């Protein structure tokens, strides 16, 4: 039971973006992918979701190789995208029914869980609403509810904190912590390090498409010459300076 990204080189047609990425996440572990705009975080995630084909390397989850068994691989992965993807003609209830169907979930148990999640995000009285009626934050919450409903072994989250109200951020952090405690694997990109560090203790720093360091906050601080008590956000400024000086 592990996510293994081995020697992954990829990107877009004719445009290599990430180079020789090696990452491993075990059950009960979460990894934060951090780096500047354009560093390759979303591109890495698109590869893990099977939306891009690797030029080199392999992605394997619980012994299922993505390129060999894409459907089996994808059933083990839930995704919270940076920009919510909703079907305009489907109600909230129908979106959740779609999640239940596509992941082959037990309907009764899934709806019990869905109601807990909907209540947590104050969407429980909006099951008949269409996406057009939702605010931006509400759309994001629908994606969060769907992903946690799927209850997969790997949860991939792309920049989740921007646009959510503080209550929703706190709930999301609690859900991520609970997923980790339940031996799930979490891969998350974010720029909001102050929130991320409440749930995630291990980070990979991506710079120009390569991983510069994987480690705890202390290890990353020391790698970039920060003092142990420097606020984590200062790391981000330091990354900026490292990039500008290159
Ligand atoms: N669809 C695309 N086609 C071609 N190049 C792309 C495409 N999407 C991203 N890129 C390029 O790939 C590189 C990495 O982009 P990516 O979106 O992975 O960065 P990121 O680290 O997620 O950045 P951000 O913090 O802004 O979300 C950038 O140089 C970008 O211009």
From TrEMBL:
UniProt domain ABC transporter: residue ranges: 3-233
GO molecular function: ATP binding; ATP hydrolysis activity
Keywords, alphabetical: ATP-binding, Nucleotide-binding, Transport
InterPro entries found in the cross-reference section: AAA+_ATPase (IPR003593), ABC_transporter-like_ATP-bd (IPR003439), ABC_transporter-like_CS (IPR017871), ABC_Transporter_VariousFunc (IPR051782), P-loop_NTPase (IPR027417)
SMART domains membership: AAA
Pfam families named among the record's database cross-references: ABC_tran
Highest taxon listed in the record's lineage: Bacteria
Name by which UniProt lists this protein: ABC transporter ATP-binding protein
Biological source species: Lactobacillus kalixensis DSM 16043
Source lineage: Bacteria, Bacillati, Bacillota, Bacilli, Lactobacillales
């Amino acid at each position: 039971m592990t996510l293994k990204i081995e020697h992954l080189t990829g990107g877009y047609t004719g445009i290599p973006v990430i180079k020789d990425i090696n990452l491993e996440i075990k059950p009960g572990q979460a990894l934060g992918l951090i780096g500047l705009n354009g560093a390759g975080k979303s591109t890495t995630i698109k590869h893990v979701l099977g939306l891009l084909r690797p030029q080199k390397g392999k992605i394997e989850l619980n012994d299922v190789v993505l390129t060999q068994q894409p459907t089996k691989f994808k059933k083990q992965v839930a995704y919270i995208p940076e920009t919510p993807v909703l079907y305009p003609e489907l109600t909230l209830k129908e979106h959740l029914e779609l999640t239940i169907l596509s992941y082959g979930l037990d309907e009764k148990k899934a709806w019990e869980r869905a109601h807990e999640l909907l209540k947590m995000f104050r969407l429980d009285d909006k099951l008949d609403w269409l996406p057009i009626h939702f605010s931006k934050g509400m759309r994001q919450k629908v994606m969060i509810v769907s992903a946690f409903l799927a209850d997969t072994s790997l949860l991939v989250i792309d920049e989740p904190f921007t646009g959510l109200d503080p209550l929703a951020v706190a709930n999301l952090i609690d859900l991520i912590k609970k997923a980790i405690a339940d031996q799930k694997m979490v891969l998350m990109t974010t720029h909001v390090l102050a929130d991320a560090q409440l749930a995630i203790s291990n980070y990979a720093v991506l710079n120009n498409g390569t991983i510069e360091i994987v480690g705890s906050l202390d290890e990353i601080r020391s790698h970039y010459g920060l003092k142990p008590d420097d606020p984590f956000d200062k790391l981000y400024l330091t990354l900026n300076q490292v990039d500008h000086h290159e």
